[in-house]
Structure formats: C-alpha cells, structure tokens
Amino acid sequence: MLQVSKERMTEKIQTWSQFGKLDGGGITRLSLSEAALEARAEFKKRVLALGMTLETDDIGNMYATYPGSEDLPRIVMGSHMDSVRNGGNYDGIYGVLSSLEVAETIIKEKIALRHPITVMVWTNEEGARFEPAMMSSGIVLGKFEKDVMLAVEEVGGGITFGEALEASGYVGDAKNRLNEKDYIAYFEPHIEQGPVLEEANLEIGVVEGVVGMVNYDIILEGVSSHAGTTPQSYRKDALRAASKVILTLWEELSKLDSELVFTTGEIQCKPNIHTVVPNYVKFTLDSRHKDPEVIAQVVKVIENLPKDVYGCKLSYEEHWGRKTIRFDDEMIGFVEGATKELGYSYKPMYSGAGHDAQYVSELLKAVMIFIPSKDGLSHTVVEYSSPEETYNGANVLLNALIHADQEL
Ligand SMILES: [Zn+2]
Fold it and tell me: What is the pTM of this model?
C-alpha cells in the first residue's frame, strides 16, 4: 500500500499551528485575518514549489492543481484554514494539510494518475468572523446570494466580508469556482470533533453523510409582577414554565432513539431583573439525527407540548433545519476499501456537524474521512489528534483517491 510521509504530515501540522498561535496553545485564525493570510501565503508557496498551478475564484477559494495523464475532470480534496476564536490546530486545517501531503506524495513519488488532482481551501467555513458558517461553499452552491454575503459586516462591527476579501488579494475569477464540468469528485478529511472513534478505539471514520437537524425557538409568555408582593399562587412565571418544558423535552426526546441528540443552548429571559417575575422566556432546541423519521418524531413532541404551562402561553417557531445528506455510495466505497486495505479499524458513521462537503455533495460525488479527536473536543485550544492519527487519515485519502482515479 502506498503511504504518505508521517514526518512531513507532522511538520505541516506544526508549521500551520504558528499562524494565529495563542500563548496558551491553540489558535485564533479568523477568516481573512492577518493570521489566515499568513496561512494562505504558506499554502501558496508550497503548492507552487510542488509545480502545481494555483487559481482562486471570486470569493477567494483557492484551488491548487496538478495535471493527470488524460484529459479528464479533476478530483478535488481539501477543507478550510480558518478557525473559531480560541480554536485548535486540526479543525479544517487537517483536511487541507492531509490533502496537501497526499498531493506532495503523488508528485514526489511520481505516482501516475489519469485525473488532474486539486487541493482546495474554502474561504470562511467557520463563520466566526463573518456569519453564516460555510459561507463560500454556500455561495458556490447557490444557498446564499453573493451580494448579500459581501455586505455582511464582521461580528462586533467593522469591515464587511467583501472589503476583507478585496484587501486579501485572493479575489480571482468566478469561472474558477468548483463546478460540474471541470471536477468529478470531492474528498474532505476532517477531525471527528466528537468522542465516538476514540471511545470505540477506532482509527478511521468512514463518513456516509451529515445528519439532518431541526432548530426550534420555544416561547413562554406569562405576566411580570413584583417578586416581593405577588403570592406564589398568583404567579404566571415564564421561567418556571420554561424549566418544566425543558425537562419534559429531555424526558420525551430521550425515549425516541439512542442516537438522537438534542440541545437547549440559548435562553432569553425578560425582563431579566432579579426582583421581577419573568414574563417572557424564549429558548432554543437543536436536534439532530440521520433518520428523517426520527426528526419527524421530534417535531411531533414539540407540537404536542401543552399550550398552557403554569398559566403561561406556549408557542414555538421553526428556526431553520436541514435534511440528512447521504454521500455518494461509490465514494464511500473507495474510502472504506482503502481503510480495509491499510488494515485500519473503522466505523461507518454520520457527521453531527455541518461541513462544506454537505453542500459540495449536491454538485459532485463527495465523501468525508474522519480521524479521532482526543476526548472528543473541538473548537477549543486543546483540540488534538496524534501524529499517528493524522498520518492514518492521509493514507486513507491517498489510497481512496487512487481508487477514484482508476474507477471514475
Ligand atoms: Zn471544520
């Protein structure tokens, strides 16, 4: 079996860990920030040194390409280089660097491929500086209007996405965007960002898709009154009612399916004054599962909530959702086949988090490869995958890519 260089893979992770480095470990490398531009410059330098050609599209996505022996569409692999605030050295960047290492192996070892290969970098996947997340893949796939996105101001106020893009020097031609004519398949290696692989002591996650999700706002309206003068029996306390509903949801949703996840992560309480009985509480419910039937049952549970809770009126609003995405079966087969040939332990799984690959899957045959995350942690400075794990994932990518090159 062909293998990448473990030493080079580790060196890449270490080098990019310098761009946006924080004193206590980890990085802050917000999209199009100075640190992100340093990361792009290093990428540019390295792909040009490998003899690859570099193109950018009109939203700063980078595409480094090496020719194949036949006139065929390109096979593309990659991810993003931006991070959240106080993020780690693996989310996103691992996908770019493992793809770069695979390209370097192919070029240096003179492995003959029929298809051209492209290593790509998505602009602004995290949405930590310019909302929303997966902005550029969303623009390419027509999910978001480009003009609307260009006008998005950075979180906390300041310059717009369009201004930051213009200043970056990475604005290219719209004709370079990922498209169905010039590309045939997309691989995205990524850290799992959850505890499943580590807990089961497995080396690789063969990612079959991205779970569907629903997001609801649930609202309770009561009456605000004086905390000292209103006897308990007279109260219509919206926070008391919300507490009851949150616990009811936990109980009811727990009965549905062991793989269902659900979260109340945001809560607003009004007037939010310690001497006043709350008259209004709004909280979120995020719930995810790969089976749309289970998601439909979640919606049923919400619809069946009592409309009156301790004298407070309950209402709800669907915020946004997404359907479960199933990746391409042939591509899943290439990843699974390569994993088996390499002798790695693995598990077919769905991603609970969103990734650019989910949008790309509507355009090209796509798949993802997961490697374990220490303690299941991500979006934090302690995010970690070992040199062995980063190497294993790159080996799977290399061999899956070779299968794709032969069979597509
Ligand atoms: Zn990511």
Answer: 0.91
